[in-house]
Amino acid sequence: MLEMCLPKSNHKKLIEECYPVPKALATSGPEYRPNSNELSRLAYYATNKPAKLAKVGAVLEARAATDARAAKGSGAAADKGKAGLMITLSITQNLLTECKAHLNYFIRPAQAIIASGLDAAGPNPHRPRDLEISARSASAFYALASYIDPATTNVDGGFKDLLKGFAGLAVERPRAAGGVDQAGAEDVEQRNRTRLIGLSALAGAVGSDILYTSVFASHSSLIVPALLENMKDNRVTLDWLTSESKKVADGRTTFSELSIKKRPLASRRAPSLSGHIDGEKGPNYEEVVTRAIAIMQGLLRHGDAGHVQSVVAHATSWLDGQSSLTIPPPTDGRQAKSHWENVDWCRWLAQSLCSWTALQYRFVVLTTLVEHLVDVCEGQATTKHLSLIEMAKGILTGPLSLIGLSTSDTLSNLAALAVRRVYKDTRDSLLPPLVDCISGLGTHVYYADQINDIADEIAARIAALQMPAAGAEAAGAGAGAGAGGSLKGGNLTDHLQRQRLANAGPEQRDESIRVLLFCLMGVLRTAHRSSGEVQKGVDDRISEDAKGKTAAAGNQTQIGLARAGTRNRVSLSVMVRTASLLTSSNHGVRLAYIQTLVTLFRDEIDRERGTGGAASFDVGLSVERIEDAIGFIHALAASTHVMGLSKSLSVGQAVTGNLRESPLEILPQLERINLDPGRPGSLMSGTASSGQGTASEATAALPVDYTAIALALEELISAAPSAAALGLTPMLLALDKDAGSRLVVDGLSNGSNTGLENQRRIAARLVSARALAKLGEALEVASISSSAQAVISQIPSFGVELGPTPPEGLTLPPEIVPFSVVPGINGAGESSSTGSPSVNRSGVIDGLASSAKLQSTSHLDTATIRRWLERDWSVGMAVDEAFAGSSPCGAWSAGGSSANPTALTSRRPSYAPSSSAAAAPGAANGANVNGTGEGLAPNGSGFRPNGSVVSLSTDTAESRSAGIDDFREALGASATSQPSSRLLGVNGNGTGANDLADRRASRRESRKISVVGPGAVGSGAAGLNATGAVGLLDSLKVGVDEQAENDATSGALDAAAGTATVPNRPIAPPYAA
């Protein structure tokens, strides 16, 4: 009977022909290559009949499984199984390359074949890992990953399993096969070869299009830990890592055959990887590290913002020891330790991740790290917290640009974290690095007002911390925004944090403010040291005319950097709300604030140019700078006056609880507390015991405060002499005068403070004299400089002068050095001239009014400057002027001329508190009684009698300061005065002497009628007689100019003078400054 011959399928026949004959199969090594001609025919067959790929794959998969089982054994059968498996893997790689357009038919069997190869190559009791099978499997996987098209093909869990297997290869620690002495030790050469094979397979996955789809998060959780494990500095130096990272970032990678570049599918190639070659020296560890760095750079360069965020998140998980990939422990006896403990390496990693990321996505690295820091930074400070802060700091202070970074969000997160740490521990070890990290925000500038906005946000946080019951809420809200706003699950943390902040005391609040001040100081310093150039991203299109590889790449578009001008300086107006820090009861806060001001004045204020007429500089620009700075200078003047003359800067909760809109509202109240002789603990109180005086002295200004504020004022005058002259001079004259009248030894104090008032009087006058001397020098008024220097020469040295520059970084508060230990000042005593001003008020005013430099920069004439400087200055009025930004040159700055100032609109933001909040302090200080102005007709310079600017709105009158005249008229004594007396200089030339004399005479006549008339009921006087408020003011001659009264020739005044008894000299009211 004839034996029937069943014909084989065509695809089976083609596959069998690719293998050597069975007898020669075991000796086909070491190449283990299929028959080339038959392999080409099989590839041609599969290409022309794509549906047959599934059958081809099934045959190859079955054969691979059989050969893999045989390869795990030993002897000739194992050699034959290995040869068959190697050839099967080679055929699979070839089919993946040639049939890339139809991989959806072949992907499942291909994955099974590669998995069989990985399983067969693993170490077993008979042999170590077979590197040849591992390398051939990696080559097939590289081809599979490179040619998968996500538009036509999907991957399942099999692909991820293969990825996990090769990631395990990349971190494997093979043991040495030797004697007892080598048992357990790593085989270094085997380890390096194995890891290079695994990293090569991961390179194929990183270059695959399928990775950058919805599977990125799960797949990168395996890739990133494997790469990081091979980038550690265990066997290489950090300097070498930095150099190699820069080479890779610049595209100078050593492994050009594995450069991770995404090309069109048609032009991609899959390299054939090799294992050990006899006689070849094994690779060193540096090659492993370099390949891992190159693959990580490709992973980040190809990804978008979401991909970069996922990579950084997986990196932090690996640093925590919680990666998805199982990392084998060291086998050489080394103790495994936390990766966070290597702070320098963590900083290098963060900077390298940024350098490897595309320019437009670099900011994501920093943002993710900061958010993770805010999430985990609770409890005691740990090395992880420090490393995260150093990583963020390294990115911020590094040379790389972070285009797209939200500096506001970053600052908000870091500042809120700093406040949280302070409220937990005022001496927390993380605070200095946090301050340095926040300071790094000034390194690069991405828009013109960036530094100004940073300063504004920090100032707003400081102001919020000063407000009653809002400090904890502001800090807690900031912490919530940082921890819960952009992160996950912050509800419980927010609740606990708010409870902690609510229970905190003034020590935590003061230290929080001090830390924020050092942050601001650091940002200003860093911005000043940087170039100040604004960076912006642009499309950098590669020219088609470029030669070589660039031209071959086509007309590609890249993101580049371009210069967009220089940044704007920080405006002094952002600091208005912080001026009350000068009167803080905490000496560390006061000194930190003054140091911040010194830095601001030195680095951020544009120096005035020119000493002559308008030809030497832009008058409009100089006036605009005066307008920008004058509001803060008013606030600084009020704070300086209060600090210099107050016996105690500590106020009770009842006082701070009345603050409504701004911390500046505390200044008039603090002034009244220290001025009222009837208040316990006030400067002239006789009820304060010796013990109370000693306790309150600890919160008063110290010698270093006086020297520091004198230095700050000198810096301000040097930078902006014109604005300083207009804003500071009335205060300096008042400080010198009030120091003589208020800081005197009080006989009722029972000797408890004998000498203290004398010391502080000398210190206050030193501040005034040094500032006036600098004013005279800056504005070239020799008479002021000489007279001020004469005062300074008579004052002994304090011995507590500040250094030339504030300290770098966060420092501890200085020790308290009271006046009692200052050697020179304690020897000075009282004299007959103690109560008299030490400087000539009229001489200072005349000298400044006639200064050509001041007139040219402010665009004001002599009469206008003199009237501005002769105002009845008070703390309350200065606070109101700080809110309104009052200036005598407001009309010029707003419109460029004084032709029609009433039609001008204000360019300044309003900082004025509500009328209800300002009414009480304003009325008691002769300031704003009802919170609203009266809309006086402006003169040519925009000047008002009590220091307010002209109304810059056509609809509503601007809030203005009010003098004693307006206070009297508000009580009802103005009904009989002429309406024309309310107008000031309507001819545009300012109020003349005749106008003022007429106004005073008319006012005096109306007062006499109401006081001495029969029944004393005048029209509009509201029934007030000699015993009423107006009569009391008139009897004391409050607000009456003696010289004007003597020169008056009014007949009605002469007739009434005989019937009224008035004192020979005016008496200052108790609340007058």
UniProtKB/TrEMBL annotation:
Pfam families membership: EFR3
Region span, Disordered: 890-957, 973-1009, 1049-1073
GO biological process: protein localization to plasma membrane
UniProt xrefs under InterPro entries: EFR3, EFR3_HEAT-like_rpt
Compositional bias ranges of the Polar residues kind: 895-908
Superkingdom to which the source organism belongs: Eukaryota
Basic and acidic residues bias spans: 996-1008
Biased composition (Low complexity): 912-928
Family statement: Belongs to the EFR3 family.
Protein name, as recorded: Protein EFR3
